[in-house]
Amino acid sequence: MVITLLSDFGDVYPASMKGVILGINSDVNIVDITHSIPRYDIRAGAFILMTTAKYFPSGTVHIAVVDPGVGTKRREIAIKAVSHNGEIHYFIGPDNGLLIPAAKSIGTIEVYEISNTNLFQKNISCTFHGRDIFAPVGAHISKGSRIEDAGGQIFDYKELDFGKGKKVNGSIHGRVIYIDSFGNIITNISRESVDFLPGDELWVGKRRVIFGSSYGFFKEGDPLVLVGSHGFLELAVNMGNASKMFGRKQGDEVIISI
């Protein structure tokens, strides 16, 4: 059985979550997706979880915590996601939209409010639900507890939607959904939305760019557009930083003219 962890905690804090998990299920394999999500950036966390969760085996429990509302009235939730071929993934975390894109990328979902305190740590910190609620609930599910035991099913959970790029008068309009550590600008324009071929000339604002299949076909410092490994159109600079060159940040509009 596998449990993944994703958070904006940096170092130190994830260790106590792992300790709680192993105290409940010592046979589980814990995989850190990342603990370097930008602080409080729910959308960035949701994107990374969405693009990584599907590569784990059926039965994996994903515990994700980017939670600026910890200790408030926001709910804790557990999700069961079932793919078209019957594979099951579980998602545990706050009800702030963080889990939803990843869960829906797997398939149909059932969402439960976590309310069964018997699954929690004995002493609950108001500032560390990752350790005291999410980690033990995920560990119990990995050990065989039913997700229904966590609490009642809900339907008014908080949504998070990256939207979709669209064609407008010969251009493609989208938005920046993530900027990675290389400075690549990842948009919400999906692979299916474009029919570009390598070598096609495009324009982003007043800057001419070429569509390519990979970074290495371009000279150092050259801008390009390509479909990244995540399946979305991205703006990049070979061995450079596209976010600085194009002056874009998360949420900004991107218009690509043909």
From TrEMBL:
<dbReference type="InterPro" id="IPR002747">
    <property type="entry name" value="SAM_OH_AdoTrfase"/>
</dbReference>
<dbReference type="InterPro" id="IPR023228">
    <property type="entry name" value="SAM_OH_AdoTrfase_N_sf"/>
</dbReference>
<feature type="domain" description="S-adenosyl-l-methionine hydroxide adenosyltransferase C-terminal">
    <location>
        <begin position="174"/>
        <end position="254"/>
    </location>
</feature>
<comment type="similarity">
    <text>Belongs to the SAM hydrolase / SAM-dependent halogenase family.</text>
</comment>
<dbReference type="InterPro" id="IPR046470">
    <property type="entry name" value="SAM_HAT_C"/>
</dbReference>
<protein>
    <submittedName>
        <fullName>Chlorinase</fullName>
        <ecNumber>2.5.1.-</ecNumber>
    </submittedName>
</protein>
<feature type="domain" description="S-adenosyl-l-methionine hydroxide adenosyltransferase N-terminal">
    <location>
        <begin position="3"/>
        <end position="151"/>
    </location>
</feature>
<dbReference type="InterPro" id="IPR023227">
    <property type="entry name" value="SAM_OH_AdoTrfase_C_sf"/>
</dbReference>
<dbReference type="InterPro" id="IPR046469">
    <property type="entry name" value="SAM_HAT_N"/>
</dbReference>
<dbReference type="Pfam" id="PF01887">
    <property type="entry name" value="SAM_HAT_N"/>
</dbReference>
<dbReference type="Pfam" id="PF20257">
    <property type="entry name" value="SAM_HAT_C"/>
</dbReference>
<keyword id="KW-0949">S-adenosyl-L-methionine</keyword>
<dbReference type="GO" id="GO:0016740">
    <property type="term" value="F:transferase activity"/>
</dbReference>
<keyword id="KW-0808">Transferase</keyword>
